Amino acid sequence: MILTITDDFDLQKIADSGQCFRVKAFPEGTYRFIAGSHILYITYREQNTYEISCQEAEWQNFWHSYFDLDRSYLKLRETIPATDIYMKKAAASGAGLRILRQEPWEMLITFIISQQKTIPSIKSAVEKLADAYGDPVKTDYETLHLFPSPKQMSRVTPEELNQFRLGYRTSYILDATQKVSSGLMDLDKISAYDDMQLFTALKSVRGVGDKVANCIALFSYGRTSLAPIDTWIKKVIEKEYQGASPFPDYGETAGIMQQYMFYYAQTHRESYPSQH
């Protein structure tokens, strides 16, 4: 199916944005996205035109929301005040990024794993978990594994998890699995909570602190008023904003601004050296 998207939409920038860890790039501009049991191959063809592997009904009912296509990021970037010189620059650099509406269970486990890990090591760990415990699916491009469900993960022993070198995160993953598979935490039910209730519910899982809870709320529940603060964002705030967070000024779009800021920092690492 051929599709036209006229708003900001850059597949490579989305893949590199640090919010999704199972996007795979193929030759000729094709990218694969997985969300739950949904699998999409999307290829850039020409100006604003894409070829997608799913039918129109699945695109409209699932992927349209996944890519947050009811929101104009182009117009959003235009609302950044000229006085915020850094954010203007970061948003221009990150034009094409979008906040993805990803599967909550996968995001819960993924961002628990993400603590103190680089993006390549997060991707590797998540892929290994899927390969070991997820259902296999054969497509025209490849054979892949879906992310394992809470029920599938509940059968995994601590000893088995240790083979993935997750360290202290193993106990956190086991706690998340127990809470979700038992029904103690209903990831669908908490989607109806307001931002603070959702944030508090996510933090009831061992190892889920402020940053991880904000990531899950933003990248799976679409809570764009929440802006995760990691070491990169802290560096930017210190250097560009004299230590005063700009996010309160952006209200409901703070999380999107965070993504522009994070992407800019990742692609301009020389400007934000590690502190020793």
Q: How does the SSE layout of this entry go?
A:
Elements: E1 2-4, H1 11-15, E2 24-26, E3 30-35, E4 38-46, E5 49-52, H2 56-66, H3 73-78, H4 85-93, H5 104-113, H6 119-133, E6 136-138, E7 143-145, H7 150-154, H8 158-162, H9 169-181, H10 195-202, H11 210-221, H12 231-240, H13 254-267
User: Which geometry do the CA atoms define?
Assistant: globular
Number of strands: 7
Strand order of the largest sheet: 1-5-4-3-2
Q: Any idea what the radius of gyration is?
A: 19 Å
Mean pLDDT: 95
- How do the helices and strands follow one another from N- to C-terminus? EHEEEEHHHHHEEHHHHHHH
Broad structural category:
alpha+beta
| Helical residues, percent | 40-55%
Summarize the main sheet. Answer: 5 strands, antiparallel
Strand content: 5-15%
Terminus-to-terminus distance: 51 Å
Query: With helices defined by DSSP (H or I, 4 residues minimum), what is the helix count?
Result: 13
Low-pLDDT runs of 5+ residues are: none
Please, could you describe this protein's structure?
By secondary structure, the chain is α+β, with helices and mostly antiparallel strands. Helices cover 45% and strands 11% of the residues. It is built from 13 helices and 7 strands. The strands form 2 sheets. A 5-stranded antiparallel β-sheet has the order 1-5-4-3-2. A two-stranded antiparallel sheet has the order 6-7. Helix 4 crosses helix 13, helix 5 packs antiparallel against helix 11 and helix 10 crosses helix 11. The radius of gyration is 19 Å and the shape is globular. The model has no long low-confidence stretch (mean pLDDT 95).
